Each structure stands twice: as structure tokens, then as C-alpha cells.
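Worked problem 6 (solution included).
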Amino acid sequence: MTRAVPPGEVRLLGDRGLLVGVDDTIAARALSRRLGDEFEGRGLTAAEVVCGFATVGVVLAGAGADDGATAGGAAADLDEVRDVVGQVLAGGVSAGADAGTTRELTVPCAFDGLDLGDVAEAAGCSTADVVAHLTAAPLRVSVLGFAPGFAYLEGLPSALAAVPRRAVPRPSVPAGSVALANGHAAVYPTATPGGWQLVGRTGYPLLTSRPPYALLAPGDRVRFVVAGAGDPVDPPSPGTVSWAPPSSARPVLTVAAPGLRAVRQDGGRTRTAPAGIPHASAADPVSFALANLLVGNAPDATALELTGGGTRLRCEVPCHVALAGADPELRVDGATVPGGQVLPLEPGQTLAVGPLRRGCRTYLAVAGGLLGPSTFGSTASDELCRLGPGPLAAGETLWAASWEPPLGDHLRNGAASEIGPGETATLRVLPGPHPEHFRPDALDVLADTVFTVHPDSNRVGLRLQWGSGTVPLRTGADMPELDSHCVVTGAVQVPPGGDPVVLLPDHATLGGYPVVAVVTSADLGLLGQCAPGTAVRLVAVSAEEADAARRLGRRQAASAVVGHYPLRAG
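Solution. The predicted structure is:
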């Protein structure tokens, strides 16, 4: 692996994050712990610390929604956070010993994995020897990432450390699988696609329902043992999400037709990235917040994210709704109604969300806020890890909390995020943290190129296709991956294939591809409206310009809701 950031350097990760280079994994763990303590002691709880293999990322909560101005919470100051990082680095913490936790967990395993024979062959030993090597001594947690609670365990014997990934990843690896690849061992806490070699299974739970949600932390030790009689080796069936609405809840809407994709979203999962849990939340944080504000909700209240249109909802009790983003075609009982304003609905009426005319996602908020099951502190549905309640189904009932006036009346023209047919989405970007891995004029090449969003794009990331022939952005013939490091929404990764990928809210917390640029927080709403086929241009701006755009967006959001709807609670 190649270093993501040289030791001792602090680089911007967009306009709401930092990436700090350290000597090694031991130093990363030590610095992560120290920064977490410092931020907590100074009341900077908005700063989330993510440990990488030779980096530490610091990301400010609300980075996907303009400092919290559109997603709740207090604004955080990147300069203040950078000062703290500088002070801690000056104390030499990153070069210190691994003086963290000494906790050791014993994990009973049944060593009967599908790839056990292949691993033995690759290691030049018997399957019994593989088991003996794995159980000889405890392994240490390097970092968490890739999936919720997924801990990379270091310290394998040399024979096993040389075992590579599978040539072809599996579309689904069962939860509880014990696996090896590229110098590490791990247990898959949840079912997920994966390319590691499966050597066994365990029923040991690695995720909990309380913060910090992951049972393991960097620095912990894990001792694998051969399971004895009565030891759990099969994880419990995930089953279905169990949730009952509170007694004060209102059954406001029934899903007659979910459309292409309809999911609940809220302000997302905060302070979960250290456990490998994606933030999620709305792909277009601007329109999401405006829909909520229009009906008097907190900007991060649970609402519906409707992709592509086609949703039909039947009203069950009197309620008030609002839609924002992408200029949807709306009808109530067949009659056309405007978007971007409060809509009263009566029992029996049907709201139909037709084609989205200026983007790909619109947001439907209900006065009082929608309710639903919470996973890791959020009702958001995550497409990468399958967290949350997932897409709505026909016949499903949507519940909302009680509400109080006042409601807004309508949105100022142009307040919500929209991209018209045939228009080019111009996204402002800051230089990425890995300039040495790209040609010197890489940002100029991006600005001069009109990309097209590939159909193989989703809430995890947008794949951008070159307009006329791929221009190599990366330097070097072999284009190695970097050591896994913190990534953020809006990061523009460049895999060896050459097509840039712009990360969206469901991205993994760690990534190994170099980042050429990061979309500014002011343009994340527009990014979330980029449908397959959309023309996209990435234009570099200065940190000062990004900050000015963010502040302007905050002022515009504050004045976007106009008037008050003339009603009283009833």
C-alpha cells in the first residue's frame, strides 16, 4: 500500500474535514484517542474522529448539510478543529507507543469455512495448521471500516498474512463469517458482499444497540478459539425490523404505490463513522431540509426521499405535507397541485407524485415529522449496508408525530435543488488531499471536461463517464491503492479504471482510492439531484470561495420559507 498522506501533514478533506498523516497504525490509534479526548474536553462534539491505517480523519457533523444549518445541531469551526489538531501533533502523540486499551475478547469459532482448503494451499500447510495459526495468539484491531463494526485484525503469522483476496468477490457473505485477506483477519458483523477468504464462523455479536455501536475498537485484542459444546457459532437470523408507533402517533398516509424508490431519511447517523457505520441521510440535504421547514418540522426530521417519481399515497387522517426538490408533477385526486408549498390532505384523498422534471429526488415531509424504527440512532435507510427500514412497500402505513402551528406557506423560487433537462450541473470542488498521485493539471482537466453520470450510480456514489475518451488523471503506471483512509460525501475518487466516482451519503467510512477533489458543502444538494445521464462539470474553487458559498447557502436557507399557512392545530 502507498501512503495516503505523509506523516505529520494535515490536509483539507473538503471544506468540512481534515486528513492527518501519521507514521503507522499504532500512531493512528494513539492520535485518534487523543483527539477524541481533546474534542470532548473542549466541547467540540461535532468533530468526528476516524482512524485509518496511517491517517486520522476529522469530519465535522453536518458536513452533508451546511454546518447543521439545514440538518440541526450547532455550527462547527474547521479552523478551531485544525488548531486543536496542530496542538496535539506538536506534543508528539502520533509517534507514541500503542498505549490504548488492553481489552481482550475471546471469540469461539467453528473452522469450517468454504475457503479453508484454498487458504491452506496458499499458505503451504494443512487446514489444521491454519486453525492452529489463527488460534495461537491474539490479534489486534487496527481500524474499523468497510462495513458496520468490521474490524481489521493485524498480527497474523507470515504464512497466513500472504493469503490474498478471492479473485471473484461473493455477492453476499453471511454475518458471522471469519475471514482472511491481504494480511488481516476479520469477522463480518453483518451480511455484505465481500472478497475475503472464509475460514470459519462465529455467533459472537460485534454490534450493539447503544453508542458507540461497535463492540470492538482500535487497539482491542481478539483471541480466536475452537468452539466447544454450547459455544454460539451461528449468528441469529436478522428477521424483520420490529417497531410499534407510540400512542400519540397519527397514521397519516398509506402507500398505494411506492414508485421507483421511496425511503425514509432523517439527519443521518452521527458519531458512528469510527464504528464503520455510514452517515446516510438525504442525498439532497437542501431540499430535504426545506420540505421539513415548510411544514414546521426541525430540518432533520424524518421525511420521505422519493427517487424518480411514481409514488402514490392515500391520506388516512387530516394532515399537511410539503414537497421540495426536482420540481415533481403533483396531483391530488387527479387535480394538479403546485409543489414547494404546504398541501392540506383530507382522509381518502390520494397524492400522486409523477415525473420529476428537474432532477431525480424529491422530498415529502409531513407536519409533525414521520416516525419509524431507529437503527444506530437514525431512521435513515442506507443502500450500502442495508441499514434502516429500507424502501417502502405497497400497503405500508406511515405514521407521524403530533404537530403545532405555525406552518410555512411556500418556498421562495429557486430555493430547492433542481437541474433542468439538458442542463449541466456545475459542481464546485476543492483540491483533494492526494495531489502527488495526480498529474499537475488534473483540476484543469476536470474543469475542461463535461462528464456524464453513468447508469451504474446510486446513493453510494456517482460514476462519471468521460465525454470523449478517458484522460489519465493519475500518475504512475501501476496506480496502487492507498492505505485505507477516511472519506467524506462529495469526495471524488479515481479508481485505476479512470472514471471518477463522487461519493454520496451511503459511502463506506474508509476508502483506498486517491481523492482528486471534494465537492463543496454548498453544492451537495445539487450533487444529490444528478440522475444517470446528467452532464456534470467539476470546477475548482478556493477555500475562501467555498466558505463564502456555504455562508450564502445558509442565509438563503434561512429566508427560503415564505409566509404562514392560515390554520390552527386541530
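Discussion: The chain has nine helices and 35 strands.
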